[in-house]
Every structure is written in C-alpha cells, then in structure tokens.
Amino acid sequence: MAFEVQPWSSTTHATHNMEQISGPPARTGTCYQTPRSHPWRPTMGYEAVQVTPLHEQPITNALVASSYSPSAMCCDPVTFPNLVTGFERNPQHAARAALYTRYTPNEWTTSNVTTFAEADKNRNYAEKVRSEAVRLMRETDEKTSQGQRDAARRLGERITDITFWRNELTTELEKLIAESAQLTDTKRNVQKALQDLEPPLHIAQECLYHREGRKSIELVHDHVEKSLLVEVDNLRSCQEKLSQLLARITKQLADCRAAQHSLEDDISHKESALGIDSLCHQLNNYSRGINYYGGIEKYDPTVSTPGTWSGSSSTRINNSHSERSKSCQLRSDAESLINAVATSVWDCWSNTNNAFNNRSSEMLEAKSKMQLHLHKTQQEIFDVEKHIELLRKAVNDKSNPMKVAQTRLEARAHRPGIEMCRDNAHLRLVEEVCTIQDSVATLHRKLQEAEAQHQQLLKTKSQLENNLKLKVDALFIDREKCMGLRRSFPVNNTIKY
Questions:
Q1: pLDDT tops 50 at residue 140
Q2: Which residue stretches, if any, does this entry annotate as coiled coil (predicted)?
C-alpha cells in the first residue's frame, strides 16, 4: 500500500533536524509486537531461561527391549535406563545412587507448600501487574484523549483567529482595491485636465502671434495683450501644478499597489495555513494518511509568535488604511485643484475675451470716427478745390479790368501839352490800377494758401486712409483671427462650472 503524502510534507523542510528513518515507515502496532509466536500468552520469567539439553548417551543393544521393537524396523527401539537395573556391570553403584536420590515426605510436603506459596505469590503479583496495567492503560488513554481534544480545541481556536484576520485582510483589500480604482479614475481626470490646457495655451499664444501682425501705431500694449500674457502665465502655472499632482498620484498608486501586494500575500499565506489547520483539525485516529514522523517534535520551523503574527497582520492593515487615507486626501486635493484650475482658466479666458470685445468696440468707434473724418476731409478737399478754381477765376477776371484801366492810362498818356493834367480821372485810374493789383496780389496769396491747404488736406486724407487701413487690419486680426479662435471654450471635461 502506497503511503499518502500530507499537504504540509512538501513545504516543511524538516529533513535536516528530524531523525533519519531508514526503510519504509513503521506501521501501527509494531512497537507492541513480542518475539513469541503467540502474543496473547503472558510473558513469564521462565521463558527467558535457556533450556540445557540432557546428557547424550549412545544407544546400545543393552538399552533396547526387543519385545517392543517393530518387526519392520531395521534398528532397535530406544528404552530409558533404570536407575537400579540399568547398570549391569556395577550394581553397588546403582543401589547407592537410588538411596541418595530419594526425598523425605516432609521435604516433599515442604516442596509442595513452597511451590503453592510461590504460585500464589506469582498469581498475586500478576494480578497486581494486570490491575496496574489496566489503570495505566486507562490513564494513558485518558491523557492521550485529553491531549488530543486539547490540541483539537487549540487548532479550532487557531482556525478562528486565522479566519478572523483573513476576513479583516480581505475586507481591507477590497476597500484598498476600490480606493485604487477611484484614484486611477482621478489620475485619468488629471491627465485629461492637463491635456485640456494645451488648446487654450495654444490659442493664447496664437493670438499673441497674430497680434504681432499689427503695424505702426496699432502695435499697442493694450489691455488685450496684458490679458493674453496673464492667461499664458496662468495656463503654464496650472500645467505645472497638475504635473506635480499627477506625479504625486502616480507615486500614491505605486504605494497602494505595494500595500495591496502585501495584503494579497498575507491572505494567500493565511488561506494556505487555514487549509492546513482545517485538515489537521479534521484528523482523528481513524483518518487515512496518518503516519510516523520520527523526531518531528524536535524540529522547530516557527518564525513568529502569536503576538508578532497578529501584529504583522495588524501592521499590514494599518499600512493599507494609511495609504487609503492618503489616497482619499489626494483625490480630494485633485478634485479641488482641477476645479480651481478650471475656474482660473475660465476666468482668464473670459477676461481676455472681454478685453478683446472692449478693444474691438474701441477700434470700431475709432474706425467710425476715422471714416467720418475722412469723409469730411474729402468734402473739404472738394470745397477747397472749388475755392481754388474760384480764386483762379477771380484772378483771371481781374485781367480785363486791369487791361481797361491800364489802357485808359496809356491812352491818356498821349494827351497833348497841357492836357496832361493830373486830374481826378487820372488819379482814379491810378487808384484803380493799384487797387486791382492789390486785389490780384491778395487773390494770389489766398490761392497759394488754398493750394497749400489743399496739399495739407490731401496729406491728411492719405494719413486718414492709412490709419483707417491699419485699424481695419487690426480689427480683422482681433475680431476674425483672434476672436474666431476664442468663440468657444476649448476645455471639454467633466468639471461643472
């Protein structure tokens, strides 16, 4: 019959300290076997006495009676010698031997009494031995049963303790796994929030890049540019905070996994120990697979005491509880930081958009005024041009009266003799010529002034048109390019604003 191997025999390294037993293990009852063929017979003192054989005598014809020998025997039968007649050659010796080997009746009686007393004594002693043996058997049986029951009770208590700590560890492991799952979700949220900061940062930097395309006087360090710079700084600061938080969450997840591995390892060990102790608790005297293991009681494989054993599990549970507390606090911090970042980003986004709207309104108003001034300037240019034409016409109109007055003076200069009189007519013609000359000179000055102002108006018109073009370009950059990128908030996550 093959011997069953116990579940702990392959894991217990007791081969070096246990007694070496050669050959197959001893079977039950081997130690109770006796060297006799009938073990139910009592062991007496005479059985240990070595029997000495009688003195050998050669068989002769003188010792064989022919009347008792069978006819078919080829040799004579054996006869026992007679103490009186067995020695034919020396009858005196035989008589003396018979006289000396006789006992008296008193000796015979004394011998019988002694034999009876010895028999009574041996029987009494045997009865005492039997009663002590029965008592010893009962005591040993009771002690063995009590020890076995106490060991079973202790095993039951141990199973209860292991089950309690196993349940505590399992409960803590479930809580830790749930907390790790929540922290993993929080990590994904933080990663998504970190990714969601890239579009606003890219848009803010793109707006700054587009606004660098403004020219001349429109390159103003206005409130929009300040808001964009503040928004970029805020987004980079939020990215740094989220990155640090993500590193903390990653480290905390590693700590949680270490605590989880410790709990799983302890639970696995306790499951194995619980199975072994349950099997040991179920063993009895009639179980299969029980066997002798010589010297196993001298081998001490233990590495802990009940105090350190329970303390180890308690330490693992406390460590897991501490990691869960840190994880819960980290989740709360992450949620607060994500909401704070979202609020900050949204506020900066709104402030920048409001600055863009205000700047666009200012630029629209400035554009409208510029267009109005341009229209007025163009009208004034038209009026000045008409006035210049009138001045030129007025100058031209003075040519005929000048010709008439000068012709009259030239004609009167041909008067003869005394007729060359400085009369009132001559004085008036001279005055008329001087007046016309003064008027023409005045008209020429006005014409030059009008032409100069006309050139100035043309220059102003050019400046107004140039400024209007710059404002149109700047307005296109702010309203179309920048505000076109900022029409919708690019952050799309689970944060409630």
A1: yes
A2: 166-193, 440-467
Q: Shortest CA distance to 491 belongs to which of 374, 347, 371?
A: 347
CA atoms within 13 A on the CB side of 228: 22
**Tens digit of each residue's pLDDT (9 = 90 or more) over 187-225:** 999 998 888 888 888 888 888 888 778 788 877 787 888
- What number is the average pLDDT over the span 153-167? 93
Burial of 372 (0-12, 13-18, 19+ CB in 10 A): exposed
Residue spans of beta strands (DSSP E) within 107-233: none
Q: From the centroid of its chain, how far is CA 245? A: 15
Separation of CA 486 from chain center: 39
- H or E segment at 386? helix 306-397
pLDDT tens, 423-464? 888 888 888 889 989 988 998 998 888 889 889 989 988 888
pLDDT of residue 99: 52
Name residue 468's amino acid. Answer: L
Chain centroid to Cα 187, Å, comes to 11
**DSSP secondary structure code for residue 84 in this structure:** T
- pLDDT tens digits for range 34-58: 444 544 445 444 444 454 554 554 4
Task: Return the number of other C-beta atoms located less than 10 Å from residue 381's C-beta.
Answer: 18
For every residue of 185-200, which 3-state class applies, written as one string?
HHHHHHHHHHHHCHHH
CA atoms within a 13 Å half-sphere pointing along the CA-CB vector of 56: 1
- Asked if residue 174 has pLDDT above 90, the reply is yes
Residues in CB range of 405: below 8 A, 6 or more apart:
429, 432, 433, 436
pTM of the shown model: 0.63
Contacts for 223-227 with beta carbons within 8 Å, 24 or more apart?
Answer: 223/355, 223/358, 223/359, 224/352, 224/355, 224/356, 224/359, 224/478, 226/355, 227/348, 227/351, 227/352, 227/355
